## 1
Amino acid sequence: MSNEKIQKVTIPQLKLKKESGEKITALTAYDFPTAKILDAAGIDIILVGDSLGMVVLGYETTIPVTMEEMLHHTKAVVRGVKRALVVADMPYLSFHLSQEESIFNAARFLKEAGAGAVKIEGASKKRLALIEALVDAEIPVMGHVGLTPQSICHLGQFRVIGKHIEEAKKIVNNALNIEKAGAFSVVLESIPLELARTITEKLAVPSIGIGAGPFCDGQILVFHDLAGFSNGYLPKFVKKYADLHESLNKAVENYMEDVKNGKFPDDSHSYHLKSKISLDELGLKK
Ligand code: KIV
């Protein structure tokens, strides 16, 4: 085993990547084994997204996700990570009431779960003041504009945001205001690529795109989408790099067939008594 100390990904390094034009890689993870795989592959950022609710917990939206669920999964991810920056998503209602409660909730991700930063959706006046307060409390913040899934009750459906001028102007302002408030990066979700390009050029901090085209400083996808975990609907911006649904389905069918046919377990998957022990000694001889 190598004694070489692993260098953690830091927030200043992400800014340097933007400045040098080196793309930032990010994926979501919600558990220990996935986090280990992503980290060993050298991913820069692992987001414990509140997409947890839809991808892993089976909710229809991200709205029901709780602080306790997010903390539980963030802790598991942190245990699997040696290098990547772990960002924890603040779930709905964990940062909407008082500023004091929001800072307390955000700090739990750092103090209890070991994350390196939090992400919060939106850019209302209150939200911008909160980002300033979080940064003042030494909590690094990743912003999130464009499609903000926690706004689903307003939006009615997940859709591309900012195709038209008024909405587009609002998104540019939101991203710039989030940077001004002190965020170290901004997620741009489901927006036209032209808009993402303009925002990325205007921002000094890295933009991380999902459904925002190729001109962002970095890209993020939901791991389960990339891995093809589901055979259901996927948005246009997803690229499947594996078909785990198909492979796992096959594996389970093969297992069932082997069990039914007595092919599993065979000798190679079984244990033996020490040859010295006789059935007599076990008191089993007839
Ligand atoms: O919750 C999540 O996974 C996210 C990403 C899609 C950016 O917010």
## 2
Amino acid sequence: METFEQMEEYGHEQVIFCDNKESGLKSIIAIHDTTLGPALGGTRMWKYRNVDEAMKDALRLSRGMTYKSSVAGLNFGGGKAVIIGDAATDKSELLFRTFGKYVDGLAGRFIAAEDVGTDVKDMEYARMESKYITGISKAIGGSGDPTPVTAYGVYVGMKACAHERWGTDSLRGRKVAVQGAGQVARHLCEYLYNEGAEIFITDIYEEKIEYVLDTIKAHVVKPAEIYEINAEIFSPNALGSIINDDTLDKLKCEIIAGGANNQLEDETKHGMALMDKGILYAPDYVINAGGLINVANELEGYRQDRAMKQAEGIYSIVQKVLKKSKTENIPTNVASDKIAEERLQCISKVRNIYSGDSTFRGRLGELSQR
Ligand code: NAD
């Protein structure tokens, strides 16, 4: 598909291709929608097989950011940068400073953060060239590791689901199957354990599980078994696409609430299938918005207490999504998409009001007749 056709299909405003011979940087920055504010999104470094694959990823992910920010009530648009390259071998100070230069050239239309394949250090290099970089370390005034805030958002979102399903948001005695024992899962498990939930955990790396078991008690299960555990809550915190034709039949849970991105392999089909099965699904981008909230807070002068307080708001956002899903009899993921779109439509109307402008932009119109 042609670039413009692709942009039109997803509704993108702008796509920037960056190619720099000296540093080897090949990057695509996709700005989806800036109705709510500057596009904010991560920088993914990946071994894309070709430009097409990188472009598709940038378009899909940046669109997702528009929805995530809108539902979370943040005033940011959706954007994403992808860097074509191997994160294990192709990183350098020059690469990320060059990337920072390109971001700077966008004069604030796009604000970059870290994502898969990039880390705080990379963003610090980029930050040397642009103030439009976030996700830097606490030591130099940044927000640092976002996972405690992400995990807290997942936890309160899970409680909102529990309240909807059982009339109480207490998780004491509830069985929770946690997929993945990474950063988000580790913090989440601490909240669950402290509240008295019974945890079943899995990971493909034993040492990750052991690290989690340093601070909590949990039953350890094999990766393939996690779907079939007789637990009331399934919490995916590892990979995407784990709700699919194969896993759907195995699931015995009543609630799915986890931090992983893109949990539904097919949004339409599997969102509907969960609804038909009577499983309450907390849409991934709603419940894992804590990471975005964290970096957004950095731009206001970071304070973790404020970020945590804001992440706590995910409880009522999930409630709103569940209510809409119930009233309109639609899957929860469709309900959250609608809420995001309604806010965008609504706020775009504010733009119709003229409130003064310091820059003269040819308001006289054309001076000469064509
Ligand atoms: P992480 O890499 O620290 O943890 C992921 C864990 O999943 C790893 O320990 C990995 O070994 C494990 N894993 C991989 N494949 C597995 C499998 N088949 N079965 C079981 N475990 C498997 O990542 P994270 O930062 O904890 O993020 C977890 C998820 O949450 C990701 O999908 C991420 O995109 C999403 N997310 C994270 C944040 C954040 O703040 N870090 C924010 C929003 C969304």
## 3
Amino acid sequence: MLLDVKDAVRGDTVKMDAKPAGKSVQRSLHQTAVEQFHRAADLVGLPEPHRAILSHPKNEVIVNFPVQLDDGSWEVFRGFRIQHNNIIGPYKGGLRFHPDVDLDEVKALAAWMTFKCALAGIPFGGAKGGVTIDPHGYSNAELERIVRRFTHALGSNIGPEHDIPAPDVGTNAMMMDWIMDTYTNLSGPGAKQTVKGVVTGKSLACGGSLGRDSATGQGVLYSLRHWCGEVGERLDSLSIGIQGFGNVGGHFARLAQRDGCTIRIVGDHTGTIRNETGLDTVELAAWVADQGGVAGFPGATAADTEELFSADIDIFVPAALENQITLERAETMKCRLIVEAANGPTTPEAEILLGQRGVEIIPDILANGGGVIVSYFEWLQNKSSRYWGEDEVDKGLRTLVWDAHDAVVVTKRSLNCTRREAAYAVALERLADLYDRRGIFP
Ligand code: NAD
């Protein structure tokens, strides 16, 4: 079967054989996202106006802004904010600081946010943004000026009822605090308290939520727990490999080990390490905080990057970047389940091969929704000025993650499709229902 996927923005067409032809197909990340969307749209019979609307972002904001560096020189940075859809609620999505950030990547990530929020049942739309930069190459003072100038350049394109950024790869709570502070200063004294919710993932002192820091990793673990219940596995019997030991991978590793899992192999941008009897993730976190990466960790032996994918483990958790599980790597994988903590880690042809080999995938829009769910709780807390306890946050997170999984499992059975297609189907039906009720202006 040939899938004919039209990316109307670029005007080009991707033809893809449903059976992997033995080598990876070249396509952009946005083409992958559009392809996934159209597959699910076909499955649920999504009508044409909805299909056309949801395969394009609503707004694409690109800003070029100058910042003075510590040595007195000037550099012009390029930043993006893509607002994919806001039929359900304000645009919502992270900000990525990475050298590979470009319009195509951010468009894909923004689309995934629309479907993730719809699937999680929270009143947000989808957006994503970023700056093309390697943040490790700049001092804290320079990063502060870059973040503040980027916020200023975005201006009224963001706002607590309009578009709400959050942390992603290369950004953190400190940067979210700077965004909030810059935005409130631009908003005038009368609005200082009411605009705190312009960004989520802030520090607790600046109006952040308990549990936001670990929310994505915790949500990934709740996803794994739900799968264990579904297939009759014991969580504490599972061995795990993880790519990425940052916010998502690091918290997931610690929480999974606390609940009895054996973390056997971990890789990041500095290298790969393994310990057959289990890595001590608390000590590893301290090492990474000090050294900047997992390489050289004394409680493990060094391994090759490809060993991470071919390791003899039950579960693989990609928690770094997109397109990491390629067709070639999928051929070597021995795990039974992939839980996509990262966005877009599996290429479409790798996914087909993994399906043929009986490897299940919990897709990104389902597995890593914990971050945006607790971002929603943070936004609610900022609006009401009533701050929640840790238990309230955790219970709310678990309920929403498991509700989304329940809906996907039911849809997967009724449509006899993959878990990714079922996740999209649930999201698309919710979005389509809203368009049907509201109509399309004018
Ligand atoms: P982070 O910057 O905290 O960590 C990124 C990790 O990826 C680091 O360990 C880094 O070493 C590793 N990495 C980077 N380049 C790599 C490479 N080439 N090879 C191997 N490892 C590499 O980012 P994060 O917030 O943990 O995000 C990780 C993933 O999770 C991304 O796909 C992000 O979009 C997704 N995600 C994040 C959140 C969140 O709340 N932060 C929410 C949902 C999804």
## 4
Amino acid sequence: MQVWDPDRYATHARFVSDLGAPVVELLDPRPGERVLDVGCGDGALTEKLVEAGCRVVAVDSSPDQVRAARQRGIDARVADATALAFDAEFEAVFSNAVLHWIRDPDAALAAIRDALAPGGRLVAEFGGHGCVASIRTAFGEVLARRGIDADALNPWYFPTAEEYRDRLEANGFKVDSIRLFPRPTPLPSDLTDWLQTFAQPYLAGVPKGDRRAVLNEMRQRLEPVLSTPVGGWLADYVRLRFAARRD
Ligand code: BEZ
């Protein structure tokens, strides 16, 4: 299970919202329009939509993150992206770095479509095909040595652009643009911090007493692949960015 702690997020994951600026740009938020932010986290990026003059509602499945977003003055609510209770209320839906956590992408797209007014925009970015492949491969090897099937613990959905375009169209969207691209991502702290922040479902599948050893082995295996000569870590992120409209 994945738990979001606002303090840990601020220390080890701030880059997620910092790198979300191009998605806001693609949304091109307009003053007065009603925007739903799906998976707002602590609201750092949602604030940009508010600053642009939008009337924003934000949802996140983590009560702690919703609390943090509310402290910024955002109208944030606890909700699962696959079960949104909105009916054609928004001119736009925005989402950054969230849709790869949703294992039922069709349920999320159907709920988002229902939240949008006809013609409303959906602009989003999330992890795409090949994202953190080296980390997933290393988990496969490190956990297999312990008789644990890493695939069964994988919490992420990283589709190709073609697959996701088909899903968007099947769920009543017209796709304006969709692009898969590598975005090597410098990590603000050690790889083990990233693993403990973002890869909790894998670690939860390991007996508690063995988790430190798993983290150390992951670090050792990935050092030749992801650590940089000047120090620091560069994770092999791949992004899928798209703009679509409710038909
Ligand atoms: C992200 O939040 O963008 C992310 C999380 C886990 C794996 C890859 C990307």
